[in-house]
Write a structure and sequence with these properties.
The chain is an alpha/beta fold. 23% of the residues lie in helices and 9% in strands. Helix 2 runs antiparallel to helix 3 (63-86) and helix 9 (294-304) crosses helix 10.
Length: 679
């Protein structure tokens, strides 16, 4: 017998080899062409092995079925060959013996066989013994074994194919770089930045520790680390990797350190006025310089009460504690420290912050929408910022916010409506942002805790809603230099806790509301520069706590000056210039023992003399405006002429200093060096 007996294992392994290598099978047919295009225009082979390969190349789900068909076909062929050989049905001289059941007999020896060769006779079916042949018995067991082997090798083939596919995918993933860093399902594999040369490409893959850091950072931050080798983010990452204690830190501490170092580099930390201990690995970041603006804190204390600051800064020596007991920042103050640049996005990773203040610096750029992540914030002050753009609506997510200070910023657009959801606010300070527009909404009445609303020089338009009367905790309402119209609602008199009512330089009309005298804690009342009409109520003299300013200058008020205003003994300024007032200057003004500035200029209808009682004020009074009142007459009392720091000037010849006595020397009104007309 020529050659060795083939077996099923050899056949199956050959099929697996054809499957893995992509070679053509032994069945012939159209040559297999591996198609990698998405459309798969390759002709599917008619040969079973090639057809299975072509279907896989096209991504068809039928290729596994085709493989099974090939295996079954090969096994059937192999069984048939073995069956024939086991029965001894072999051909002699290359001629096959007729198959079982044929009635044809071979010639007997010596008859038609001149060669005298032995010829095997065909065994008739009827001559086969009734007992089952040995080969038939073995065939049953062999078939069962072959089925088990077929099942095992089929599984082996499929696993082998899957292994080959996985290997190909892994190789492609390693060799082909990906630009997509947006996936959040796995940590990106990022090359390390060389500490010796920031411009050279790295040669190592990240370690597991580095991968852990990357997994904590936003995808945008990882992209910045990759994109710019000199970015604040990349420098912060390198700084972290140089920290020998890094494995011992909690995730929050790692993110905190990264955020602080990124903030340092993004705001030119090397040029800060004070950057003591910053970036020192051997000093806890809780001991890095943070500057509570004690002057600002004093303002906040006066504004919000001692308890407000005590909540933020427990009494400690020598300075307030910035971190909690777990070493996590809760307060970060960097006021007046020469910060430049823009607050980086990574600053907003410090999600445990309760207060942040960075006023009086040289910051620029917008407040990130990520500010909404700082859900524990109670105080947020970012002032004196240029090119800051719009106020992000995400500030409205800070439901714990009690103080919002955006003063002196170059904001544009309008105040987002979401800010009016912050009903826990104690104070909203957004003054001196003239390009920022908004109107006071009716929701202002929902702010039961609001103490300060300061929005002067702002671009506010519209009217003051009557609902403001229900914001009964208001202590300061300052909306000067805006475009408010309409009348002052009478409900404003319900704000009995007001200390400051300052609505100067608007377009308010109507009369002064009654009931303002109930604001007994008032120390500033400034309604100057409007179009108010009517009289000055005598009841306003009951505002005996008024200790700074009573100012209705520049309106259209008429009537006389109430003598009851002489009861405002704590006031230091009383200004009624540029109205239509008439009558005399009340002698009771001699009781204004704290008065430093009296202004009655340009009323035109004032008459009579300057009361000599004003001489009693010569130690405190430093400025009097009397010009523009041609009906005034008589001699100015010498005590007034001798008042502290007085010079005599007019609108045409003003005093050089801030103080002075201003009047027209007409001869009808004389004294203080101005000659009087005889008679």
């Amino acid at each position: 017998m020529a050659g060795s007996k083939p077996n099923e294992q050899d056949l199956l392994l050959r099929i697996a080899s054809e499957r893995a290598s992509g070679l053509s099978g032994a069945e012939g047919g159209i040559q297999h062409v591996h198609n990698t295009s998405a459309s798969c225009q390759t002709t599917i082979s008619s040969a079973p092995v090639n057809k299975a390969l072509d279907l896989e190349a096209c991504g068809s789900d039928d290729h596994d079925d085709e493989i099974l068909k090939v295996v079954q076909m090969r096994l059937q062929q192999h069984r048939a060959e073995n069956r024939q050989k086991s029965l001894g049905l072999l051909a002699v001289d290359g001629n096959r013996i007729p198959e079982q059941g044929s009635t044809t007999r071979d010639p007997l020896p010596g008859s038609d066989n001149p060669a005298g060769l032995a010829v095997a006779n065909m065994v008739e079916h009827t001559d086969i013994p009734t007992a089952l042949p040995h080969t038939a018995v073995n065939d049953t067991d062999t078939s069962r074994m072959r089925r088990e082997q077929t099942k095992q090798f089929k599984t082996t083939i499929l696993l082998g194919v899957l292994f080959v596919i996985v290997c190909i995918v892994v190789v492609v993933a390693i060799l082909v770089p990906s630009d997509d860093h947006q996936s959040t399902d796995a940590n990106p594999t990022i090359p390390l930045k060389s500490s010796s040369n920031s411009t050279q490409a790295p040669t190592q893959a990240p370690t597991s520790l580095e991968d852990s850091i990357f997994s904590l950072l936003p995808n945008e931050t990882v992209a910045r680390i990759l994109k710019d080798r000199d970015s604040p983010q990349s420098m912060a990452f390198d700084w972290l990797m140089e920290d020998g204690e890094l494995p011992s830190y909690s995730n929050e501490q790692i993110m905190q350190k990264f955020a602080l170092v990124a903030l340092f580099h993004a705001t030119a930390g090397e040029r800060w006025y004070d950057n003591t201990n910053w970036l020192k690995h051997n000093v806890s970041e809780c001991e890095w310089y943070s500057n509570p603006d004690f002057a600002q804190m004093g303002n906040w204390r006066r504004l919000l009460g001692e308890g407000f600051l005590r909540d933020f800064f427990p009494p400690t020596e020598p300075a307030p504690t910035m971190c909690n007991e777990d070493g996590i920042y809760e307060h970060l103050w960097l006021d007046h420290n020469n910060l430049g640049g823009t607050l980086p996005e990574e600053f907003y990773l410090m999600t445990s912050l309760k207060t942040f203040s960075a006023g009086g610096n040289h910051l620029e750029g917008s407040i990130s929408t990520r500010v909404g992540q700082l859900s524990k914030l109670e105080g947020f002050g970012v002032t004196d910022v240029t090119n800051v753009g719009v106020i992000p609506s995400e500030l409205g997510l800070l439901s714990r916010l009690r103080l919002l200070s955006l003063n002196e910023n170059d904001h544009t657009g309008s105040i987002p409506s979401e800010l009016w959801l912050l009903t826990n606010l104690d104070s909203m300070l957004v003054f001196n942002s003239p390009r920022l527009k908004f109107s006071i909404p009716t929701e202002i009445g929902n702010f039961k805790r609001l103490r300060w609303l300061a929005a002067s020089n702002f671009g506010i338009s519209g009217t003051i809603p009557s609902e403001i009367g229900t914001a009964t905790s208001l202590e300061l309402l300052s909306c000067g230099e805006n475009k408010l119209t309409g009348t002052l609602p009478s409900e404003i008199a319900q704000l009995t806790k007001l200390h400051v009512l300052a609505l100067w330089e608007n377009n308010l009309r109507g009369t002064i509301p009654t009931g303002l005298e109930r604001m007994t804690d008032m120390f500033v009342l400034d309604m100057s520069g409007n179009q108010l009409t009517g009289t000055v109520h005598t009841e306003l003299g009951l505002l005996t706590g008024l200790s700074v300013n009573f100012n209705f200058e520049g309106n259209h008020l008429t009537g006389t000056i109430p003598s009851e205003l002489g009861l405002l003994s704590l006031a230091i300024e009383l200004e009624l210039s540029n109205n239509l007032l008439l009558g005399k200057i009340p002698s009771e003004f001699g009781q204004l023992s704290s008065m430093g500035r009296l202004a009655f200029a340009n009323n035109s209808l004032l008459s009579g003399t300057v009361p000599h009682e004003l001489s009693a004020l010569q130690e405190v009074l430093h400025t009097i405006y009397l010009e523009g009142n041609p009906e005034l007459s008589g001699t100015i009392p010498q005590g007034v002429c001798d008042m502290n720091g007085t010079c005599v000037g007019t609108a045409y010849d003003p005093c050089e200093g801030p103080y002075g006595l201003y009047f027209e020397c007409t001869g009808f009104l004389c004294g203080c060096g101005c000659p009087c007309l005889d008679g």
